[in-house]
Design goal:
Strand content: 15-25%
Shape: globular
Number of helices: 13
Order of helices and strands: HEHEHEHEHEHEHEHEHEHEHHHEEEE
Length: about 375
């Protein structure tokens, strides 16, 4: 009996010892900041799912330079004020080593200085041109998707050169993402000598755009350019169809090219052309591999910006494997990324700290996106 008790004690001590060693083993800790409530909440699940999938893939192969990746999820509620609170908590209280997100441009503008002050890498999927490195000079901030300037330029180019648009009207949201896009669209149309016949705004959360659309209708446009977030896009296109403007095409921004829009818009989305950063229909081998893994794990299809956060985690791992864990080395290493193969194609850090300029032009037909062209 005594020998049995001693054996139990030895095994128990071994287990405790193992636990202590495991608990003390260094990890690389990342904050994932995204909207799980609020106006951008529809994207939070895609971001979390793809990020978790990437982390599990890295950890299954031993982690990064022998350290497992640990992450903490924070809900910024798509609110700049909340984003400031959670990013501050993540860096100062929870001692994370890197931050992924926020995903809303207004939140990034609110918090990027916190990352800069604390010298911590921040990798975001937000797309407003407002916070490019060429404009704000924050060396710690990097973007995982093409910025909106690129997408709007491509959108206008396609509208003018392929759809032969001559009288565009614009409806846009009120956030930084939408207002900056509107300004770029006006500028790009003017380069072709084309003046917009109407410019109207729908505020985030607004459920009725009839008044704005009636003003658009009076301008007799040949295309309606939609530069809003997903819920407002659905409101606009449904009411636009109800007004019977059958001779006017609709071309939308990146938020108009995702299931979050088409699910809400229903049949009104049929025929809409959109510029996209990602769609699971794109027949690229890397995209299809990502889609298959996501679908097997979550029994659903991924949507933009899921691919960006998946790419970002693998990209960060590759940099750490080259330069180690010192933040200043990681920051420099990120600026030196050239041709990293991601779901979004070859990723290269440009002068704006953007890793990609990839975009698609697609049309929604029969319940799916029909890809017209891919632009690198």
């Amino acid at each position: 009996m005594l020998r049995k008790n001693m054996l139990f004690c030895v095994l128990a001590m071994a287990l405790i010892s193992s636990t202590i060693v495991s608990a003390a083993a260094p990890v690389y800790k990342i904050a994932l900041v995204a909207p799980f409530t609020g106006s951008g909440s529809i994207l939070g699940e895609y971001i979390k799912n793809s990020f978790a999938m990437a982390v599990d893939e890295v950890n299954a192969k031993g982690g990064v330079k022998g350290r497992k990746i640990e992450y903490v999820i924070y809900d910024d509620a798509a609110s700049p004020a909340t984003a400031i609170n959670v990013v501050t908590k993540a860096i100062l209280n929870d001692k994370v080593d890197a931050v992924f997100g926020p995903n809303m441009s207004s939140c990034v503008l609110a918090v990027n200085q916190i990352a800069k002050d604390n010298k911590i890498p921040m990798m975001v999927g937000a797309t407003s041109p407002s916070f490019g490195y060429d404009k704000i000079g924050n060396e710690w901030l990097f973007r995982l998707r093409a910025d909106d300037e690129v997408k709007v330029v491509n959108l206008v180019k396609y509208a003018v050169e392929n759809m032969k648009v001559k009288k565009p009207a614009i409806i846009h949201g009120s956030t930084d993402y939408c207002v900056v896009a509107k300004n770029v669209a006006i500028r790009e149309f003017e380069k072709y000598g084309i003046k917009t016949v109407a410019i109207e705004q729908i505020k985030e959360g607004e459920k009725d755009a009839t008044g704005q659309l009636l003003k658009v209708k009076r301008g007799n446009p040949d295309v309606l350019v939609g530069l809003t977030h997903e819920p407002e896009a659905a409101v606009v296109v449904r009411q636009f169809r109800q007004l019977g403007m059958k001779d006017c095409d609709v071309i939308g921004f990146s938020a108009w090219g995702v299931p979050a829009f088409t699910d809400l818009a229903g049949t009104a989305a049929e025929g809409v052309v959109a510029v996209q950063g990602f769609t699971p229909e794109y027949k690229d081998a890397k995209v299809q591999e990502f889609v298959a893994k996501y679908q097997a794990r979550y029994n659903s299809l991924p949507s933009d910006p899921a691919q960006a956060y998946y790419d970002g985690l693998h990209l960060l791992k590759s940099v750490i494997e080259k330069v180690g864990f010192e933040r200043v080395d990681i920051q420099k290493g990120l600026t030196e990324v050239r041709g990293f193969q991601g779901v979004q194609g070859p990723l290269t850090c440009d002068a704006k700290h953007n890793f990609t300029n990839f975009s698609l032009i697609s049309q929604f037909k029969g319940g799916r996106w029909d890809i017209i062209t891919a632009i690198h």
